[in-house]
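Practice problem 4.
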């Protein structure tokens, strides 16, 4: 009978170190601290984390499969820029999902008031630290709207976009930190429309918000939407 391979001493530690390196690097990729076009060094990350290069390399490999990094042997890992086509694809899906969900969420708007209030307060707190953490708070706000529909299949599909959404927002904020104040104001308008049960207004506000964020962060829509389009 074939025996199961035995784990070697240090395997668990190595796996734990790789996970730690993965979380460390990915957090900084998603919040913009590791900006697009940056070349990351295995040695430097390993030094910061006080671990060997092997778990850092494992973390880089995982992030390459997620299409966030591009590895260059003996040079490091390049933070891949968000492509225009990828940004547009995410926008299109978000318009379809979030406008639908905003309109439906308005049917139970009053019950969401406390959650919106907490979310907006968290967003405003990020202003005290120069916007650090806003991309995460933004993601949670939009997820509240989708989750209000209580459609688990739709929720899973939406969550599949979460890393791309957060990274694109971090890119936009890096270009112009004053956008945070504007985004919070727009979120407040969306929450208000949902709370008062005005589904059409909520959907229209979400559309304007998402299109505006795309235009400011990734460039013009190049006419792919017309003013009469409503998603």
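Answer key:
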């Amino acid at each position: 009978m074939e025996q199961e391979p035995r784990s070697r001493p240090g395997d668990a530690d190595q796996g734990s170190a790789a996970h730690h390196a993965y979380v460390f690097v990915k957090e900084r990729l998603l919040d913009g601290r590791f900006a697009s076009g940056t070349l990351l060094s295995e040695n430097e990350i390993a030094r910061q984390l006080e671990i060997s290069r092997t778990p850092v390399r494992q973390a880089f490999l995982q992030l390459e499969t997620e299409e966030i990094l591009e590895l260059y042997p003996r040079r490091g890992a390049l933070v891949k820029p968000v492509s225009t086509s990828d940004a547009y694809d995410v926008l299109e899906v978000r318009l379809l999902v979030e406008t639908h969900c905003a309109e439906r969420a308005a049917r139970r708007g009053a019950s969401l008031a406390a959650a919106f209030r907490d979310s907006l307060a968290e967003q405003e707190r990020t202003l005290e630290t120069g916007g650090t953490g806003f991309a995460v708070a933004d993601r949670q706000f939009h997820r509240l709207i989708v989750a209000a529909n209580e459609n688990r299949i739709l929720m899973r599909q939406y969550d599949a976009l979460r890393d791309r959404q957060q990274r694109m927002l971090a890119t936009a904020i890096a270009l112009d930190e004053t956008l945070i104040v504007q985004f919070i104001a727009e979120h407040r308008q969306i929450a208000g429309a949902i709370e008062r049960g005005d589904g059409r207004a909520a959907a229209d506000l979400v559309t304007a918000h998402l299109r505006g964020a795309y235009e400011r962060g990734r460039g013009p829509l190049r006419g792919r939407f017309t003013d009469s389009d409503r998603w």
